[in-house]
Specification:
Helix content: 40-55%
CATH architecture of the largest domain: 3-Layer(aba) Sandwich
Order of helices and strands: EEEEHEHHHEEHHHHHHHHHHHHHH
Largest sheet: 7 strands, mixed
Number of helices: 18
Strand order of the largest sheet: 3-2-1-4-5-7-6
Radius of gyration: 27 Å
Number of domains: 3
Strand content: 5-15%
Distance between the termini: 89 Å
Amino acid sequence: MTTLHLGCGLDYRPGAVNIDRHDRTAADVQADALRLPLADGSVTRVEARQLVEHLGYAGTVYALAEWGRVLAPGGTLLIETPDRPAACRAAAESDAPAPALHWLLGLPWPGYQHRTLFDETDLRALTEQAGLTQVAVTRLPPTQAGEGLGEGLRLTATQPHDPLADLRARLHVGWAAAGIIDPLTAPPHLAHLETVCDRVLRAVTAGDAGLLPVVLGATARHDPCVARVAFQALVAHGFVSPAKTRPYLELVSALADEAFPARLAAWLRANPAPPGVQAVRLRRLHERAGLYLTARLHPDETALHPVRFRFDALALTPTDREIDFFCADTMAHLSHREAARGRRALARGDLPTARRHLETAIAYDADNPLPVWELARLAAARPLEALEHYAALLELLPDAADALRTELDAVTGRAAAVGPQPRV
């Protein structure tokens, strides 16, 4: 059993295994603190001094999962980090010295910038969410925190023997290791993965005999690779047997080969809807995806064959294939990307290409007003079409109704046709 000193930099601590991802440090081992080359439960203490502020919020969530994984039951975690309110107050002083700014922002060198500062409440909540117990937070005066640069926080916690906490950590670690998420970039689907994690844990806690179908529905409809990690974690922690998960793992492997998230995006694109109903579209699609997964698991259920045939018949475009995790945020992201491509085409004077990208943007996210607005302006020569687009904009942007009606009159020529109105 050993002590880890993570993100050591030049602060070498005898008796501990000093670890840093950079090679210009005093580290004994060069490794990423979010992907430690250590077995589960192999260390008794993890120390992370002046590290979490460099990882960002999402990076800290996944780091806590990884550190909990390597800690043995009863092992302890120590975190020291700047105190956000104190750092902000010190840096806001009119005569704030350079060290106060460094305590808030970090240093302008690779790996030394601060991405997120925490207060006591945030730090405690994230640690408890990761499943650690006996969490205690104390305040450090400048003389004890970060070489005297400013006030800090010191958190200590204990790793319990809790199968559910271990499962949560395994899910986070598995998703990062599989490349489903890079915690340091905080992709659009970050929050949805947290929701998936909660659903899996609730299903396990319920002890339902239908655990595996519930987990399949909660995970595969976003990304089959997410489902694969979840099933492997359930087996690793003894919640289900390998034999029971075998057909599910075979199914999610097939779905991954078939680009299932892209197929869901194609279904959305192929079924356009009026503005203001994106949430309803997504809910219905998830219901159909659940039926499709059931049809794949039970091919003898002839009543579900039409659902399967419709999904399997979808033709994927290169844009559909840009989606590898299906959720509302990734579809909104893709819609904005298509709208930007449409704007670039407009700037080049390529109107057919612009129209194609803008219409695709609306098909992916019916609630995105940007492509609707551009199409409304493109339809200046077709008043009925312009009126249809502006009516959609009034649904999406009711607070801008006056400006939209004025622009509609200008685009369609209505203002010139009516002429100035007499004063009353």
